[in-house]
Specification:
Oligomer: single chain
Order of helices and strands: HHHHHHEHEEHEEHEE
Largest sheet: 5 strands, mixed
Distance between the termini: 89 Å
CATH topology of one domain: Heat Shock Protein 90
Shape: elongated
Number of helices: 9
Number of strands: 7
Radius of gyration: 39 Å
Strand order of the largest sheet: 2-4-5-7-6
Length: 377
């Protein structure tokens, strides 16, 4: 018998009806689990096939026993398909549990561990993305804890450094007010020194806030680096002399950098002043200006060698952090007291804003700070 269009349409109608009926029957099942959803898909497809075959065979007027045989065969195939779907659902359920465990670990602040079990391609990609995300979150939390620790240290040290000169100013003012001073000029000088120190701390805090906000001056000029360093050394010579430190400078090469002269001068002044403060009396701070051929483009270098005795290996990575001053109990030098641990953080911020870098390493007698800046084109 040759199938006609009416017979085909009848079979299609039976298929749609059987599919819709099975779809409605399995609707609650699909909402229970992934395995139930896959079983529902297989059963719905099988029902559609049985409906289409039954409608077609009925239209072709085949004997009843032959119709039953065909329907049983198709049903058996559907059962096999349902079993295969169940096995697949079991595999997907296990994969889902792996991802659920990974999400739970991320929620606890952990980085999910790879158990070596291979997931399906799409889910393996999801697990990889979860692992990368968890690693990023862990690093962010670590940075946040470090910043919070630095903030607490900064507040503690700033409070201490403000309290000391303020207490001194109060004592001096009371002595002057009560007429207990034989030499007022000496006290006036102490007042001026304390005010200068407080002003310097306020300037440091202001500069740090500008660095963190990225609101630097945009006045960019071509600046001869040797002139910049010479001005810095000349300004710090009195400080070095007062502390008994020899301050020397050498020009191993000349270069011009593009930047804001005032800000770069501040960065270098902070760096050299820090070296002077922590170098022992009769020690030496040597500043070298030169060129570095490392990298794809030439770099101007300013190297500051001091004789501070070195920095603990565990503290090297924190030297440029806000508020870092080494050991909390460190006593500032009497001639030039240490600030609130902002100078080197400001130096790094200014240098990086000029597309440069700064790093520190220990030497035999102390430390070597190296500032690299791109040479102006």
């Amino acid at each position: 018998m040759t199938p006609t269009l009416p017979n085909v349409l009848l079979a299609l109608l039976w298929a749609v009806g059987a599919c819709a009926l099975m779809w409605l029957i399995t609707l609650p099942l699909r909402r229970r689990s992934l395995g139930a959803l896959l079983a529902s898909v297989v059963l719905t497809g099988t029902a559609a096939s049985i409906g289409a075959i039954f409608g077609f065979l009925h239209a072709m007027l085949l004997p009843a026993n032959e119709q039953v045989t065909v329907i049983v065969v198709v049903s058996a195939a559907g059962v096999v398909g349902a079993i295969a779907a169940g096995a697949t659902a079991l595999r997907l359920t296990k994969d889902r549990k792996v991802l659920s465990t990974a999400l739970a670990e991320i929620g606890q602040g952990l980085v999910p561990k790879h158990d070596g079990r291979r997931l399906t391609s799409e889910l393996e990609h999801v697990r990889h993305e979860l692992s990368v995300t968890a690693q990023g979150l862990a690093e962010s939390r670590s940075r946040e804890r470090s910043l919070e620790s630095a903030r607490r240290e900064l507040v503690t040290w700033v409070s201490h450094d403000l309290r000391t000169p303020l207490a001194g100013l109060r004592a001096i003012s009371e002595a002057l007010e009560d007429g207990l001073v034989d030499d007022p000029d000496t006290y006036y000088k102490q007042i001026r020194t304390s005010v200068d120190r407080l002003s310097g701390m306020v300037d440091d805090l202001f500069d740090l806030s500008r660095i963190q906000a990225g609101s630097f001056s945009r006045d960019i000029d071509a600046i001869p680096l040797d002139d910049l360093v010479s001005d810095c050394l000349a300004a710090l010579e009195p400080l070095a002399a007062a502390q008994g430190v020899r301050l020397t400078g050498r020009m191993a090469g000349t270069a011009t950098v593009a930047g804001n002269g005032q800000e770069l001068n501040r960065a270098l002044t902070n760096l050299v002043a820090n070296a002077i403060r922590h170098t022992r009396a009769d020690g030496q701070v040597d500043v070298v200006v030169g060129l570095s051929a490392a990298g794809s483009s030439p770099q101007a270098e300013v190297i500051v060698n001091d004789e501070c005795g070195g920095i603990a290996d565990g503290d090297l990575a924190r030297v440029f952090d806000v508020g870092f001053r080494g050991e909390p109990a460190r006593t500032p030098h009497e001639v030039h007291p240490a600030g609130a641990g902002l100078g080197l953080a400001i130096t790094r911020g200014i240098v990086e804003a000029h597309s440069g870098s700064v790093h520190v390493e220990n030497t035999a007698d102390g430390c070597r700070f190296t500032v690299c800046l791109p040479v102006a084109s």
